[in-house]
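Cross-posted from the bioinformatics board.
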Amino acid sequence: MAASDYPLEYPSHRHAEFSLSETLYECVTTVDHKRLGLMYIVAALIFMVIGGIMASVIRLQLAVPDAHVVSPETFNRLFTMHGTTMVFLLGMPILAGFANYLVPLMIGARDMAFPRLNAFGFWAFLFGGLLLYSSYIGGGGLSGAGSAPDVGWFAYSPLTERAFSRGASTDFWILAIMLTGVGSISSAINVIATIASMRCPGMTLIKMPLFVWMMLVVSWMIILALPPLSACQIMLLLDRFLGAHAFDTQAGGSAVLWQHYFWIFGHPEVYILVFPAFAVMSEIIPVFSRKPIFGRQAMVGAAVAIGFISMSVWAHHMFAVGMTSTANMFFVAATMLIAVPTGIKIFNWLATMWGGKLRFATPMLFCCAFLFQFLVAGLTGVMLGVAPFDWQLHDSYFVVGHFHFVLIGGIIFALFGGMYYWFPKASGKMMSETLGKWHFWLFCVGFNMTFIPMHFLGFLGMPRRIYTYAPGRGWDLLNMVASIGVIFQIAGIACFIWNVIQSLRSGEPAGDDPWDGWTLEWTTSSPPPEYNFEKLPVVRSSRPLWDLKHPQDPDWKFE
Amino acid sequence: MATSTLVPASPENLEREWKLPDRGMIGIGFLIITESSLFSIFIVSYLYYIGKNLSGPYPKDVLDIPIVATVCLLSSSLTMIMAERALKRNQLGRFKLWWTVTILLGAEFLISTGVEWHHLIYIDHLTIATNLFGTTFYSLVGLHASHVIVGMTFLLLVLILTLSGFPIQTQERRVAFLSWYWHFVDAVWVVVFSVVYLIGR
């Protein structure tokens, strides 16, 4: 097939055939799931770099005591924009990107169920992101009260009411996040309809790749968990613009209602973000262990169980607001409970590796790091799920360390693994293993250097979101170590970006199936043609490509 | 497992017998689920704030049960079913008739909501900014009314297309999806009605 069909993969080769305006036209008008998937991922990575730069400035400010790198007001804006960017403009779109690119390929379909809705979802997300960042220009509003939202990523009301948050920056936050939410919901409906209605003949639900299963569960969670956020944002907008009293304590309103609504969205959101990582892990680990996944049914069951339980743990973010002890006990118990299916998943991945013929290529390295780091994240999560422990460490750096272990040590590591794994499929080129290993080790060392000390800082009493601190509290050294870790992380990310550019330009040709995989995306060419499959495949087991490669010993005889 | 029994499932058999649900059906179904999630938060807010007003007017003083509007909206679901049945039997005249009746019933619902709000605002001096009751009442009933308006827009679109000679019988599926949405809006009204006019008073 002609390279000119893939503007995103071959930017450097295209100048001769396609002008910039034509490429742009292609991007704006496309409804192809692969192109949209890549656009999602590229846009998410750009937002990741922006959010990463903000995090670096935060770490610079906190590296030494009594520092004044930025003003306190700017600092508040930095951590708000950092959190909002990473959750809504990196985590959500990169999920949609992976789902878009891979779900149709894995279930043997030619496109998503609703291609135009798919494009709509992408543009809703992108314009939501641009709207959020345009607050730096227009956020002051007429009262000139500071640019960019500074209310934290969960924007607790009543502090976000007009009386306490002047200017328009909070409105930018509300509208931008609502817009990206609409995009996420439409892409989730699309994924569910695709999985329900477009599977190739023979692919029953239980034969579906685990990646697709995870995307199905996560889409369900998006459908149920995002509307509560939109709902409370609508109420907040009514409060701010029409003088309503939904969160106004002066008029008898509740000060904790927003917290409940936000975390009814917010805790499922954490699982929504981590499910793509589960999806990637469940594909990479079997292929690089040369064994089928251990306990497929248990994996699916655990995923569905996590989806259910995640809807009933939200108030473990709110132990410190003073709920009744019955409510506290319920949410402690639910939090303990959700660790069980998550543990099942970890054990199944380990059991898949056990006795396998392990290949430590870059994707597998990232997945191994995930196993360790996500385990640590899970254990600190269980600790924080115990109400009295949470009272001690609520809103401390222990919490910051914990959720960064989930979000970076878990999710980002697995997604990097996924990018190394599927890059050959999307581009037709292999990524450099040498640069990949540099990326992995630099990022792994830097990540642990930055975030392990944060747990200890939390124990030593350093509160979250603090602007600066006095010397001599025992926080100096650990903060310095954490900030130095950032340098390693930046170097790792630089290796990754250089690797992508270098591999697109002159990577080795990948062939259709560089990793000797078993799922349907490896049966088509790399990059796949616009129609994905010349003839729609017919599937008889959960590893259709294994069946094709081993006609004497096919899986369907034993499943 | 089934595949290793006496008659192995050959690819040809699989392909012939392979049948999956309609994607439009799944799409509209999940739209309804996500909308339910949105409504549930507004309903919880309403229930939570019942009786927490610091100042009047109070629901029992100003709210009248909108019987006519409710009857109209609920019966519009029935006329919608009649219209769909006519379309299935290819009786275009009847379809147009029932469809127009559905729109008129929906319009009557919106008009009586408008009259009710006008009365509340100008006679009883209850606005969204007056008290907690005003806030939760206008946001919940307004959210529902905005869904009725969206539904009405699509109903009108179908009517205009049909009257201008578009062969609507080719779009039976899409008309069915629209009717699902309409039934959903009606069902939500049953909940909103119970919460606002029965429990809340």
